[in-house]
Amino acid sequence: MGIIRKALASRPVASLTSPFTIDHYLDQIHPMLAAENVRARVVEVRRETGDASTVVLRPNGAWNGFVPGQHVQFGVEVDGKRRVRVFSVSSSKAAKKGTFSVSVKAHPDGYVSQFLHHELEPGTIVYMSQAEGEFVLPRVVPDDLLLISGGSGITPVMSMIRTLRDTGHQGRVTFLHYARSRDDEMFTADLDALADLPNVTVTRVYTRKPEPGAELEGRFHVDHLKHLGIDPTDTLTYVCGPAGLIATVRDTYTELGAADQLRLEYFKVPSVDLDAADATGTVTFDEAGIEADNSGATILEQAEAAGLKPEFGCRMGVCNTCALKKNSGAVRHVVSGEVTANTDETIKICVSVPVGDVNVAI
Questions:
Q1: In this model, does residue 197 exceed pLDDT 60?
Q2: Which residues face 42 on adjacent strands?
Q3: What is the pTM of this model?
Q4: Is the pLDDT of residue 46 over 90?
Q5: How is the chain split into domains, by residue range?
Q6: Spatial separation of the C-alpha atoms in residues 116 and 87, rounded to whole Å
Q7: How much is the pLDDT for 278?
Q8: Cα–Cα distances in angstroms (integers) from residue 18 to residues 32, 212, 271, 283, in the given order
């Protein structure tokens, strides 16, 4: 099948099917048939909490697999319209039967996550990208490893630790997870089981409803690392979660001279300070012929406030769905803080804030 797929994806075949791709014709036969486009059939939808679910998927032959910690663009068609969002893979790399899973918390305003949690059924075919992302374990995992997650940020970290478990990793792994309460926690049964492994330490901190006699309480603090016997300067550390957790861990590691040991993945981009000093000037939506005062919000949010409907996916700067050309002006990246002012550059409008006058191709 691999040889056939390569032949179908070849340039001679592409020239014969132009202006369409071979997958356009294969899709007419069956949506799971594709030379290049990834499709997956839903095998199971498993409820994790009252507002979170795990979806087990069986991909077609175009799928190249994943590295623990990566994410996929996940698309569903409802009423003839395809909607795409980005979800992290949560399953072990060593999972059997050719399946993998994504785990998603349904957000009140999240159309796809709400549909996935409440309406998605086994047998549904979904549209996917190949796995993407650099938040992955090294090829050789060190003997001491710290995984820190907060809320829904646990999903890529679960993929990592499940893979380490299933591949027989013998090094010390410390898993520090923050959730609002035990009821709000995803993967509770799995975390209980992981805690029984001789080389794994699982510590859960419930920030709103701590349990009696809890080992640790409150939000992340350097004392939590000291209590667990972690030396940040020589412990490779992966952190995934909301912006507040990321910022606190990053500042702590920087102060301790351990920044080089840190690998970060935002599960929600930092909120934008609408009172920022750079919230001046005018945002011009060139194609729509609309100008608006710069409010200091992201360009995506300002476009939506102006009545426009640009394409978007993750709203976290991950998937590139919202990427478009900035004709002129400067923008600040809300995650990295980097300011760029190149003419005719491509930006992700979900994580770009105008700095003064900006003209974008919307």
A1: yes
A2: 57
A3: 0.77
A4: yes
A5: 37-128, 144-266, 282-360
A6: 11
A7: 53
A8: 21, 66, 45, 39
Compute the average pLDDT of residues 252-257.
97
One-letter identity of residue 232: P
Question: Are the C-beta atoms of 292 and 278 separated by less than 8 Å?
Answer: no
CA-to-CA separations, 287 to 194, 250, 291, in angstroms, rounded: 53, 40, 11
Summarised one tens digit per residue, pLDDT across range 260-304 is 999 998 776 555 555 455 578 999 999 999 999 999 899 999 999
Domain 144-266 belongs to what topology? Rossmann fold (3.40.50)
Distance (Å, rounded) from C-alpha 134 to C-alpha 265? 9
Is residue 16 very low, low, confident or very high in pLDDT (cuts 50, 70, 90)?
A: very low
Residue for token pair 């309480």: 217
Average pLDDT, the chain: 86
Q: Cβ(121)–Cβ(76) under 8 Å?
A: no
**Which amino acid appears at position 9 of this protein?**
A
The helix (run of H) or strand (run of E) holding residue 247 is helix 243-255
Return the closest-CA partner of residue 202 out of 213, 193, 214.
193
- Alpha-carbon gap, residue 143 to 14, rounded angstroms: 48
Residue 284, strand partner residues: 291, 359
Residues 178 and 147: beta-carbon distance below 8 Å: no
Strands (E), 122-269: 125-128, 144-150, 172-179, 200-206, 236-241, 262-266
Residue 25 has a pLDDT of: 44
| Superfamily the domain 282-360 falls into | Beta-grasp domain (3.10.20.30)
The three-class DSSP label of residue 145 is: strand
Q: Which residue has the tokens 């426009």?
A: 308
- Which of 35-39, 71-75, 192-196 has the largest mean confidence? 192-196
Fold identical between 144-266 and 282-360?
A: no
37-128: in CATH 2.40.30.10: yes
